[in-house]
Amino acid sequence: MRNTNSLLYLAGTLLAVVSIADGTCAQQHTLKVWPDAPPGRIAAVGQEADTSNESSNQVAGKPVIRLGNVSQPTIAVFSPPADKNTGAAVLVCPGGGYNILAYDLEGTEVCHWLNSIGITGVVLKYRVPRPEGEARPIEPLQDAQRALSLVRENAKTWGIQPNRIGVLGFSAGGNLAARLSTNYQQRAYPAIDAVDQVSCRPDFALLIYPAYLFEKDKEDLVASDLPLDDKVPPTFMTMANDDRVDSENVLRYALGLKRANVPVALHLFSRGGHGFGLRETDVAATHWPKLAAKWLQEIGL
After folding, report:
1. What global pTM score does this model have?
2. Exposed, middle or buried, 168 (CB in 10 Å: 0-12/13-18/19+)?
3. What tens digit of pLDDT does each residue of 37-54 get?
């Protein structure tokens, strides 16, 4: 293992190996999102693999798994101990600019944290990279809608309550979480089976330094692919004001949610940059999980 959240590759297949501090492993189920070939485009041109190398930037002194060339979307389900299980679950969307997935930093490590507070974590491995010329490709939204329905369809088997399933996303994954939260009335693909008859609307959302929530060349408050109404789920957001992605993303989206009468919690920190995941440092912005856990308690989870 290269660290406590390791990915092994065997004959082109991704195997997640997740170790907890006490040496035990979280219960895991891995499912394909689609029974056959997924709808839409696949821009991957090589084998799925960790694209990090010795020159790649580290976060909080540790390496990051930058998963590239994902052509087969999956969900990996990590369940908390039965005696801690609250019945809530969260679909986790790693970021990476829709080009790669920060699979441990913003995926499996998030599931560790969710398990520690009694919540089932479900990492979505959605399709990357994005097709050329596409800022916000439709294929990840297709994967996310189908994945949320899969979690709800399997809720009883996995010890989850079907009305307590949320979404959490980072950076581009935060954009995907927002798109999933707002595009719940109509699927981005033709229904293929009974799973697609199950609601894909999350019951709550957490957006961590999200990207692409507004369009700088347009006067609209939020991006055109984020239709806001009062059925959008309660939303928690956090970001640093010095984030290169632009904190205006969360400010505009929070105002849009307020105007739509959607409960919203926003924490904007003076500094912290971008892409820190859950790895705490002395910077206040990296302590957001404590605020998020309190918010989850306040909304009854």
Report:
1. 0.92
2. buried
3. 999 999 999 999 999 998
